[in-house]
Amino acid sequence: MRAANAHSSLTVAKEPSMDTPQISEAIQKGVNTFMETVPTLIKALDEVVKNKQFVSVVVTAFKAAYAIERGRKNDKRVLTIYNEMKEMMAVLVRLNGVSDPGHDGLTIKERMEELCRDAADEIQCCANVCDAYLKKSIFTRIIPAKRDSWDGQLLRFVRVFAERRYKFESALATHVNADAAHLKLANDNARAAELTRRVNVTSQLLQEYATAQEKELDARATRMGGDALLADKQAMKMLSRDAVVENEQAIDGLAAHAQPGTKPGPESRRAPQGRPFDLAELQQEIRRDPGEAIKINAEFFNRKFGLQRRQIEEDFVAAVNREGDRIITAVTAGPHGKIDDPDIRNIWKEMGWRGSVKSRHFVMALKDHYHIENVVEESDHPNKADSWAVEYISIGRARTIMEAFDDDASGFVTVKEVNGFTQSKSRPTGWSLPHWIAYWATGWQMTSTTYCEKIEEIFDAMIRLAHEVLPENRSNVYYYVGETWSCVTAFAQSIKRETGTEELRAKFEPHVAAEEARLRRAFEDLNYRIDDPTTLRVIAGEGRIEMTLLPMFYLAMKRDLEKISLARKHVLSEDELDESLDTIYSIANAALTRIEGLRSIFEQQSLEVKHQFEIFAKGLYKISSANGLTFDGEKLRGLPNPIPCRDEIIPDPDSVPLSVLNHPLGRAHKIDFAAYDPPEHMEGTYPMLGVYYGFIYENGEPTDPMFKLTFTAGEGEHTPIATGWHYRDFQYMSYKATGNWSAPSEGGKIPVELNLTYSAEWAYTELEGVFDPEENSIRGTMVMPDCESSGEFVFKRDPDFVRFYPAPSAINARTRWNFATTTIRDRVRRRSFPYILERSRDKERYMELVIRNDHYGRDLSDDEEDELQDLLSDLCEADAQFYHSLIEIHLSKTIIFHQIRCDSCDSTPGGSRIVCIDPDCRNEETSVNLCSEPECINSTVTFEEADRQAHLPNHGMFKVHRMIFDRDTAIIGNLAQDALDSARESMSQNKKGRKSKPKCAHCKNTVSLPCWRCVECTDERFICDDCEHKQLAFDATHTKMHTIVRVTVKGKKRKHTVEERMQVLEREFAKVRETLANLVAKSTEGLQGEPLTKGDLQAAAIGLSEPAGSEGKAGSEGKAGSEGESGSEGKAESDGDSGSEREPESEGEPESEGPESVGEPESEGPESVGEPESEGPESEGPESEGEPESEGEPGSVGEPELVGEHESDGERESEGEHESEGEPESEGDDWE
């Protein structure tokens, strides 16, 4: 009742006499205080629901709309409409003072129940309109025509809610005032006038609430022509340069993701860097009617709204139950009286804390309460059965306990946060407070470790299945797996893992299973689709994203694994995995938003940010906070070996229902022989129905291949329609032609108007002309307003006749003669065999040029572009349709490596990919990638980075004919290096006559350098360069799934210059400074950081001893992912937070010779620049004194290891024996 009285100011109906300034002031005040006043209103409405259950339907709808709106950036235009909704709901607070029955004998329930149901539907409808509006780009709000349409959709609810509020007041008045049944609340005319003023004021406010960016763009758009701006493609692009296409459902938080995202196909897929300016998508969005957009949005929004309502209803029931069990302390008892849990209430009272306390002080007091006072061990304590949990409320676990209570990471724990933790709806019924604290102290880390392992298994299963899916699905599956791996692994490989004991995990299993079931149910209600942050909040619930991050990744990927399994048997829609990837992006984006919030808090507290992320949430954000979602080469090489999946987790496609798919099945690729089928006869009143062929001309030349239009009657005889496919602007896309024709003129000609719209092109084409029954043709002019382009067109029935027909504007005696002679010669030539051969060659050449121009391979030269244009002009529509069906099949069978570019020719590799494994030419980010063109394989690649050496043709390289993912790149590189070393060893043995000379596995000729060796075949399988280039060596044993390595002469080592050595020293000194800074920060922060231990100093010493640029092989133990595992799993002090941290594992660490010092001389004495190279295998003769070997000398084929990375004397002597005795001196030499 107090809440109702406190909110009485909201319940007073506006007087009809309010003038325009008063209305404006009241609305603006309501908008500015909306987020602050609604919680008070909701509390008052909850009190009403307890007594008047029939209003729960509208109250729940209002709370759901508020919850969704609260989860995004507040838009004042939307809040203006929500303020009207709030004013309507405020009337219901007065229901607490209503008596039953009314003066007419009806109860308030009978009078208002239906009104409440209608109001709930209106609230849901309004929330959907606002949701659709907020998803529109900024351009929708600055183009006057579209802005006015959307404003009209919003303003409609001002009237709706005002009318509903009036009906509520009328119903209440019947029960409050005896004379109210005979009186009206206000004069109808006055009320209507006020409503009109209110709508006008709101309309004006919608314009005033535009952002500064919108106002600036609006002014520029007005100067450019307002609505006419849509017709100016260049102006739209110019306007977009300073405008970000903001969309709350976009994954703009993934800006740190550096890996390029391109769609496997001719069109550009949305890149993870955010939403690029896509003119086609923008045009489609602007042209779409608001009503249609709202209807499309409602299909998914209603699911989300229903899920939010259900969760609110469940929370309300749980809150009522808790209210009955809660012990209410007198208000005069002090701040501790507001705390629900009795144990924490006593601690708060004894310590004399006020509204908040420092996190570390709170945790220490909590520990003392349970340990020193030993309260749980008392025989009458209700939590005695959970005395085991007290062991985990310790100093070693203090960090994780602080994070659990301190929800905003401010360093302070408030009364609200304490109650939020102890009364959390995720806390299992029956769990004591020590049990609940123990879960967050150690159980969450163990649970996260389990999910990380499950995620790795799913990735392994996805990669296995990716090579087995149908060709039509392959590129989409590859793209999904690659992008998802990068997003998820940034978190899964970052967290410090702890397995724990089985007994301990069993104590937390009920909560883990219940939370997973809750998330799964929410995902299923929304078909595993997350379209914006508000949807994610509905699924995840309140609280920190790290609580549900890994389980959500796991559940989403588990469903996607089922889709990929189906892709082995069915052709999926291209949108299927695109939508799944959006869900992964949305989850990752929420984590990145959390990271930015934490970063601001750490900086405000003057903490060392990098160190804080290394320890916060057990390091969950360590990688992503530093590098976004990017994995450079060094981090990839440091990842542990992936966990192989068990066979039982791979779904059988026959057992997976098609209901897991959100889109209809796709179209299987097949050769389109139907392109040459004769046209069907079209029946109709007008003679122009049927098939036409022709060209659109610009400047007297055809712009694209021949059109084929098949006209059928639309809704009426005067509205023809035509659909089909057409190759335009180097894209093969579907089109739709709609229009109308008028009555015949006196000459019998029929005026025709047509509009052509394309699936992948926002510019549309307008055709205006006439149908001539005598010529049986349609001709006229073409206008492309979006491109300021114009031309002319001619469509005729006979494709052979129109094939060489000149543009109407170019017709004269000469062009007519050329047309006649060319047509006759062409018909005669068609009967000859050379013509058939020529058409076959043209087809092959056309397909080659289109593939290189649109998909992969070297860019076309100017001559080749002209050649392609000539081929296009001679191409009939049937040929284009047939050829592109062949191209589609070819692409589905070809692996296209969209994520990389050839470092030599800058093309997109297709069919195969080559990666250099020589350590000298790779940097910390990436290795050298090449396509399979011989000139690229044998090229020298230089780089702009001063400290990066050139890639040389004799470097070790491996080649794959399959997709390899970032996860496996380092592993394959290590295996290829081992195979290369083995092949070079064989060369040495062959030269000495100890082994027979190797022969090519295909042509059986003796191989010469350079050649290839299979990495995976059990026998030593060599392949000559020619057979490999022609792909002749594949058989049942050696398949395209195998990796091969290029065997070349091992080049001579080159000494590094003084500048290069200085760069190494600078990197080492930077590493020393960083390590010391971390140690200082850790030792001075106390409980705010991790306790400084002996293990920290040992780890720092090991890190300093590793020379810059050195990497362990992928999968070696002791790397990320294995460090930090508890030596005694499940013990209270064993997770690395305690003072007695375990010793670091020795596996994978440097051996006993001791760390090599940077810049330390080799065992034979220091090297001086300009002095002869000391005794070693690489020196084939003394160098000239005082003349250091330059980087660019032709003889400097190889690169030396950096200082600090040299081998021991014995290793160099052994290697020298091989190099000096067994290896050929130059590439291409025969084994002789």
UniProtKB/TrEMBL annotation:
Record field: compositional bias (Acidic residues): 1146-1192, 1222-1232
Compositional bias annotation for Basic and acidic residues: 1114-1145, 1203-1221
Start and end residues of each EF-hand domain: 393-428
Keyword set, alphabetical order: Coiled coil
InterPro entries: EF_Hand_1_Ca_BS (IPR018247), EF_hand_dom (IPR002048)
Skewed-composition ranges (Polar residues): 1-11
Gene Ontology MF term list: calcium ion binding
Annotated segments matching region Disordered: 1-21, 256-275, 1106-1232
Coiled-coil portions: 1055-1082
Protein's name in the database: EF-hand domain-containing protein
Source organism of this protein record: Thelephora terrestris
